Amino acid sequence: MDIILLIIGFLIVLTGIIGSVLPILPGPLASWAGLLLLYLTKAIPFDWTVLGITLGVAILVSIIDYVLPILGTKKFGGSNYGVNGSMVGLIFGVFFGPLGIIVGPFLGALIGELIKDYKDFKKALKAAIGSFIGFLSSTLLKLAVCLVFVGIYISIFWKYKDAFFGIN
């Protein structure tokens, strides 16, 4: 059973990395769930400190993820249309590979702002840049946290690997 929890936990931690880029999946919280599964194995001594701190970080980053794009958009004079457009642009951008993931949110924010006020392209462009900067900042923050969680997962597993395989 421990090996199954180990494998599922690792897959969930990796899913968190994907979720840090895609808005559909909860990146840091998914990675934390993978850490939790690791600690639920019999081979790893339960550590409330590590789980509590990582959960706090995951929740904080998840909250910041919603705030940063809004702050970036508002700072550059944009609206919620730009924020929502950025998220829709990312979803469509995923189908066009890494370049789509970068260009999609920007174009989505620009189109969103143009839907709101199609007469002022310069203002829509400025707001789209702000939305994109906020989105990119929150995505990089989530990605960094998820990569740290993967590192924690691997280091904890490595420390107790002998217990998983019955080696003393």
Structure description:
It contains 6 helices and no strands. The chain is an all-alpha fold and 168 residues long. It has one domain (2-164). It is elongated. The model has no long low-confidence stretch (mean pLDDT 87).
Task: Walk me through the topology.
Blueprint: H1 2-21, H2 27-39, H3 48-75, H4 80-93, H5 97-116, H6 121-164
Query: What is the alpha-carbon Rg in Å?
Result: 19 Å
Helical stretch tally: 6
Which structural class do you get from the secondary structure elements? mainly alpha
Count of extended strands: 0
Count of separate structural domains: 1
Q: How far do the termini sit from each other?
A: 19 Å
The percent of residues in helical segments reads: over 70%
Shape: elongated
Main sheet makeup:
none
Strand residue percentage: under 5%
Mean pLDDT rating: 87
Order of helices and strands: HHHHHH
Q: Low-confidence runs (pLDDT<50, min 5 residues)?
A: none
Keywords summarizing the entry:
single chain; 168 residues; mainly alpha; 83% helix
Quick summary of this structure?
The protein is mainly alpha-helical and 168 residues long.
